[in-house]
Amino acid sequence: MPRSPRVEYEGAVYHVMCRGDRRKAIFRDDHDRNMFLATLAAACKRAGWVVHAYVLMPNHYHFLLETPRAGLADGMRWFQTTYTARFNARHHVCGHLFQGRYKAIPLDSAHPSYFGIVGNYIHLNPARAHLVPKDAPLEAYPWSSYPATIERAIRAPWHETIRFLSAVGLSPRAYAASMARRLAALRADPKSVVPEWKEIRRGWYLGGDDFRREMLNRIAAQTAMCRRDSYSGAAIRAGDLRHAANWFNKALDSLGLTQRELQKRKNTDMEKQAIAWLLRKSTLAPTDWICQQLSLGHRANLPRAVRLFDFAQDPKRTRLRQIMRQIQD
Q1: Which string of DSSP letters, residue by residue, matches 221-274?
Q2: What is the pTM of this model?
Q3: Residue 240 pLDDT
Q4: What's the CATH code of the domain at 53?
Q5: Which domain holds residue 200?
Q6: Over the stretch 168-195, which tens digit does the pLDDT of each residue have?
Q7: Judging by beta carbons within 10 Å of its beta carbon (0-12, 13-18, 19+), is residue 203 exposed, middle or buried?
Q8: Strand ordering across the sheet containing 50-56
């Protein structure tokens, strides 16, 4: 089954999240929660992880996790398998505990603001889920890194607060005051969503354009020797589009055209159809994207153009197909 590629490198930082199977609870009581944290502590020791923020929710968890030695996948495999075995043994059950693969979104740790965005999102999770009693402070929820971050609970050895507090530019006391204001705003308008949180929920990375390019290069290198249909997800689709854009530019150069010049031509233009044929035959770019780049009009024009070049007999189409095949080589 196709899967999203795991981007692993030394010093990577991720927002890691996983839900219970069928969204069922992954904790039945506080003993389970302590067992989960003990398993996390062992995983950090084995893999060399550093946890900058975390929260345990009834049916899922979140980590802001750093991997100084890389090895996210191996560490997560041991961690989730071990906790599942311990949970099942304690409750005399069997089968899966977690829902599919965990989610791991790499973030640009060179820009401290992303630490703050993800950390605040994690720390406010209990409040958004109404797990913090009305009028109680955020630290009233004990199964989070927040109480230790503001120095109102004992910090675990594997939980690091210095880098996170430096990223938000606040002392523990000032951070507590800042989060109290955020909590009040959330309670005043429970439907309010910070724009950056949409990226956390839906994106495949968190960072600027340079970081996106870096991640795409890492993914391309990682998947270069693998079958394309072994992978799926937003990161792979972004790589497909970048690959298609590269071929599109090569085709324009080979014909001595600019994109603007090509778009002004009719849909029956042979050079426009030749590039359409190349992109359809040699890339995984979506039909709508190809039609948009070429200004090809209705999406039905694409398969029509491809058929004309698949069975080309006239000299001009034959010559253009040869030029496109040189690009393929």
Answers
A1: HHHTTS-GGGB-SHHHHHHHHHHHHHHHHHHHHHHT--HHHHHHS-TT-HHHHH
A2: 0.72
A3: 65
A4: 3.30.70.1290
A5: 12-209
A6: 999 999 999 999 999 999 999 887 767 7
A7: middle
A8: 50-56, 60-67, 12-19, 103-107
